[in-house]
Design brief:
The protein is an alpha+beta fold and 171 residues long. It has helices at 8-32, 160-164; strands at 46-52, 58-69, 72-80, 83-88, 91-97, 106-111, 114-119, 126-132, 137-147, 150-157. It has a 6-stranded mixed sheet, with no helix packed on it. Strands 4-5-10-9 form a 4-stranded antiparallel sheet, with no helix packed on it. The radius of gyration is 20 Å and the shape is flat.
């Protein structure tokens, strides 16, 4: 029996219905004053980024400070920013949205094949993301800029020629 693939629109309808239900529940709790845990009384930041992978399969990524753990939403003090990773030639560009903070509050660190984006302890908003990079990068080539809540990081791939490999002839 063939497996029926769900369309991206069906998946989005389900996600939107779940989000609507959870936010209505959280709003009711907030209005009644039931939520007493740190961070439960907002702000609530939740979003999804939809993209199509190289294989044509839709990819849905969540961002914000509302995470679903064991079927129940958990509100965190840290906000996961919306991040895009763009690869062009020998360069990798990472673009992250971190509004509401100054340039001096943004901290960046390369750990292995990950870029860690976070904020200083004194920042008015707390952001944190670990971004998986598509290849190893030269840490010394990193350049970053910040303008209007958008941080852009440009990195050079490490040994791009070595990644091309060597063709093997079949005899």
């Amino acid at each position: 029996m063939p497996v029926k693939r769900r369309s991206i629109f069906d998946i989005m309808d389900e996600i939107m219905a779940e989000m609507d239900e959870e936010f209505r529940r959280l709003e009711r709790e907030f209005m009644r004053g039931i939520s007493k845990e740190p961070g439960d009384n907002g702000p609530y930041i939740y979003g999804v980024k939809i993209s199509v992978g190289p294989d044509g399969t839709p990819k849905i990524e969540e961002f914000g400070n509302v995470k679903k753990m064991q079927g129940k939403p958990i509100v965190s003090d840290q906000i996961e920013p919306l991040v895009d990773v763009l690869e062009k030639g020998d360069d990798i560009k990472v673009v992250a949205e971190v509004p509401g903070i100054s340039k001096d509050d943004v901290k960046l660190k390369i750990v292995g094949q990950k870029l860690v984006i976070f904020t200083s302890d004194s920042a008015p908003k707390k952001y944190y993301a670990e971004v998986e990079l598509p290849s190893e990068v030269d840490e010394n080539s990193a350049k970053a800029s910040y303008k209007n809540g958008i941080v852009e990081i440009t990195l050079k791939k490490k040994n791009p020629k070595a990644m091309e490999g060597k063709e093997i002839k079949i005899e």
